[in-house]
Amino acid sequence: MLLIAETATVPVGIYGSRPGLTLEVFWLGLTEAPIYLWPSLVFLLGAALLARLSLSLRARIALSLLLSAVVTGEAAAVLFRYRPFSRFIPFYVLLAGLFAITLLALRRPPPQPRAGLWAWLLDRSVLYAAFPAAIAVYVYAYVANRGLYPNLHLASLQIAHHLLGIGLFRLFLGPRLPTLSRRGALYGLVAVAVLALAGTVAKEADMLKGGRPYFRAFSVLGQSHVVFHPFRSEDEGEPAPVIPLEPDEALGLFDEFSAMPELPADLDLSEYNVLLIASEATRFDQTSLADPELKTTPSLERLAEDAFVFTRAYSPSSGTVHSMSGFLAMSYPSMLRLETWNKAWHGRLHDDEPILPEHYTAAGYETFWVGHNYEECFDVSINGFKRGWDLIQLQPSATSTPANDRRVGDVAISTLKEIAKGDGRPFFGWIFFESPHGRYHRHYPDMPGDTGFERYRQEIRFTDEQIGRLLDELERQKILDKTIIVYFSDHGEEFREHGGTRHKSTVYSESTRVPLIIRIPGVPGKTITEPTSTLYVPPWLLLHSAPSLREAAIDQIVRVFAPMMADTDGGVAIELCGHDRMMASLVYPEYKFNYDFIAKRYEAFDIRNDPLEQEDLFGRDLEITELAIQQLDRYRTVRRDRRRYILLPDYEVPEPEEDEDEDEDEDEDEGEDKGEDKGEGRPLPERVGKPLPVPKAPPAKAAPKAIGKLSKPAAEAKSPAKPAAPPPVDDTTKPPAKAARAPTAEGPRRPSPTAP
What we know:
This protein has 756 residues and is an alpha/beta fold. The strands form five sheets. Strands 2, 3, 6, 8, 9, 10, 13, 14 and 15 form a nine-stranded mixed β-sheet that branches. A hairpin with a 5-residue loop joins strand 11 and strand 12. The chain is elongated and about 95 Å long. The termini are far apart. Residues 656-745 have low confidence and may be disordered.
């Protein structure tokens, strides 16, 4: 049953295009099962001894308690490796029930059935309860939140397997079934051992390496690898020396590959205000920009009338902490001193990574941040964003309150009014709305709202309504034509397109393709259909701003963006970082290539005809397969040599305190301004984690190579010779160590204050 379930986790379409993969996944499941499910095997062996041996009552009780404690203790140890689960009381109740049912299963059954409810509970309830419970837990392990919380799913699998063993044990102890003979039991054990040994030998001989990426990516046992072996940055390999690019060459690469529109050479943006408007978890394909029939974003359509509209913009990650860290610090998340903690959506951007408000404040701008504070995230679990702002107004929010963004809009409007009365300095502002982050609420009776997906669309419209209020206020204050407006989202949202929900678990398009609108007063807009990243917007704007801002942009383009663009032929990089999931993606006009660092799995999609990435062409189309390996391996090399991220899987922040009257308080104070600046929130302990040392670059500069838009002919021109078949993907190798075309290992320079 277990091996069938493990094999069935891999999508049927993958099996159809890869003969022999089914057998490989089956063998891998057989070799991994004894490693992770040993407690149930120990129980069955101990139960058999109890049934066969004549022991004293004291010895029987002691052995029964020991076996029950082993099974329950191992499940608890696996479950509570994720520390937040240790505070969840129902888990303790379930573990106590497992301990009790194990003890009951080890009772010697009476020779004849006894009458009465109590006798039935003691003698036969285990048999009738174990099988349904095992099936229920199996279903949960393989269906609910698959891909998230691997320790929970492994513990569930251990419990389900143990319950199944209990049921079988009690069934064969029944008076109506023949007792398994010693010879039969021995033959069975030998057969299982031989199969497991054969699978282990095949795995060690790399005979099953073709199935390993799919086993690690899809099966519960495969995903359980990170429970005991969390990913480390060192797993990417030793960094090689890097060679700096010249600024002119780097700027040329950025102009060629960023898809940012060309602005008039004499345009000086330092005279304009800059207003960032961001919303949580907004998919481009669910806005009116993508489909006017949806009617979800009329205010964005209004903003887009004389603006640059990007129809294929991607966020740098699929979670807020990595995506917004990258945006504010103008860097790929992997190239930042950015900590990721026990929960992959918690972390801290180090203070030595300068962020946009610091640059703008040093250039003489007035800066403010108004936004949500979902579950106190910016006080507790997402740290490093509060530097450089003159004013911070974060609004408390909870998932049970539907009107959080109305309060954010109210405070933002009040802030704009006050700034309009100020000293005339230009401002840099960030307004961050919570919706449509789950939970999804009904707001409009004229829209469908029965399903979560329909309510998600209502949330998009609700945020759009608040954006419309901001545009109206900018017009009233007569600063709309003096303000550059950038609207974007930090990431998208999943609705089981690939089996998952919400976000921060994949790099597929539903999680990363976001709306992006840039309105510059006096500059005619247009629609841009080339792939781009929201990361490119800040340096692109800063290049046309004050000298200090331009210098900061050039520094990041030379140090971060241009090397990646050069080596990947302009691929738009998306990254998901965490100790239990580490993924990346490269987006091109025609293709999207994905890589899973933990499973060591490649994917390739033709996004012209398959925008939601449902048909993986890797291994099925020879030309695309070679192209995916080539480009992703180049990406891995650039990233390996410049990585600065820090994984701290054992660090956990305190949980925010619950307010029992939270809903009532928020309803009463809905129109009030409760967004005091709380500074950096609760103090955090000192944490380890320094950037990996990168050797000094050699004095000689590598000759630049020809760069062109990625296409099949271009890739063929670069490849000296094409093999007759797709090269095997060796999941044990690292990208080749080579001198990369990129800047020095020094971090970004801090902005120095200049006169307004």
